[in-house]
Write a structure and sequence with these properties.
Layout lengths: L15 E10 L2 E11 L4 E5 L6 H8 L7 E6 L2 E2 L4 H5 L2 E5 L10 H11 L5 H11 L15 H12 L6 E5 L7 H18 L2 E5 L3 H7 L2 E6 L2 E6 L4 H4 L5 H10 L9
Parallel strand pairs: 3-8, 3-9, 6-7, 7-8
Antiparallel strand pairs: 1-2, 1-4, 4-5, 9-10
Helix pairs in contact: 3-4
InterPro entries: AAA+_ATPase (IPR003593), ABC_transporter-like_ATP-bd (IPR003439), ABC_transporter-like_CS (IPR017871), ABC_transporter_ATP-binding (IPR050763), P-loop_NTPase (IPR027417)
Family: Belongs to the ABC transporter superfamily.
Organism: mine drainage metagenome
């Protein structure tokens, strides 16, 4: 049998792999044994009621908190041991963290690009201004933009460093329905075109069904359910993802559900 001279190329590591992370505050467990994996180009929703552990999980992925146990891997890099290299592949945006309103669109992008220590930052800013149809607004202060325009600038900011992993916390919560729909489509296109992985948190279940390839539902610091958001409710006897969310939020441990 002939032997191939071509070396087998190992598969690329996932954009994000979280292995059994845990975190305690003052004797109380906020996150217990959470694991998740996101491949390149995949959009995964992280769902759960307030206090479920979503923010703590995100903060551990961003390196803002160190897990008490477990491991965070970003594109094959161990966040604990290769922090700078791993975080260079990540970006984050939340609706509650608007860009400085007294800076123009270009100034904001240049500021963050320099904060990220990007080479050729001016050229990268010009590319993003054109890609997001923001060139005409480049000299406009962000505080004078519409909510939709601000959302486009914020998304452009997250792409400055060409991230492998993008974390979006309630990215459409302050937008009108039409603008929110436009932003969702932009993010879907980004995942498909650039292979960027996205971890998306939202309380809008219809949005989650439209955008996410998979969802994980957290309650009391652990993953209770995961799967396709368009099928998950029916698989567990609920009429809608929202109904399932409400049931799990109200009775997370009595429900008998598990991963």
């Amino acid at each position: 049998m002939p032997v191939s001279n071509h070396a087998r190329v190992p598969p690329a590591p996932p954009a994000l792999e979280v292995r059994d992370i845990a975190k305690r505050y003052a004797g109380k467990t906020a996150v217990r044994g959470v694991s998740l994996r996101i491949e390149a180009g995949e959009i995964v929703g992280l769902l759960g009621p307030n206090g479920a552990g979503k923010t703590t999980t995100i903060n551990m992925i961003l390196g803002l908190l160190a897990p008490d146990a477990g491991q965070v891997m970003i594109a094959g890099l161990d966040l604990a041991r290769q922090r700078a290299a791993a975080l260079a592949l990540v970006n984050f945006q939340a609706s509650y963290a608007p860009l400085p309103g007294n800076l123009t669109v270009r100034q904001n992008l240049l500021f963050f690009g320099r904060l990220y220590a990007l080479p050729g930052v001016a050229r990268r800013v010009d590319e993003l201004l054109e890609s997001f149809k923001l060139t005409a607004l480049a000299r406009t202060r962000c505080g004078l933009l519409s909510s939709g325009e601000q959302a486009r600038v914020a998304l452009a900011k997250t792409l400055l460093n060409r991230p492998r992993l993008l974390l979006l916390d309630e990215p459409t919560s302050s937008l009108d329905p039409a603008t929110a729909d436009d932003l969702r489509q932009m993010i879907r296109d980004l995942a498909v075109r650039n292979g960027c992985a996205v971890l998306w948190t939202s309380h809008n279940m219809l949005e989650v069904e439209q955008v996410c390839d998979r969802v994980l539902l957290l309650a009391q610091g652990r993953v209770l359910l995961q799967g396709d958001p368009r099928r998950l409710a029916a698989e567990h006897g609920d009429a809608s993802l929202e109904a399932l969310f409400i049931r799990i939020a109200r009775e997370p441990l009595a429900s008998g559900e598990s991963t």
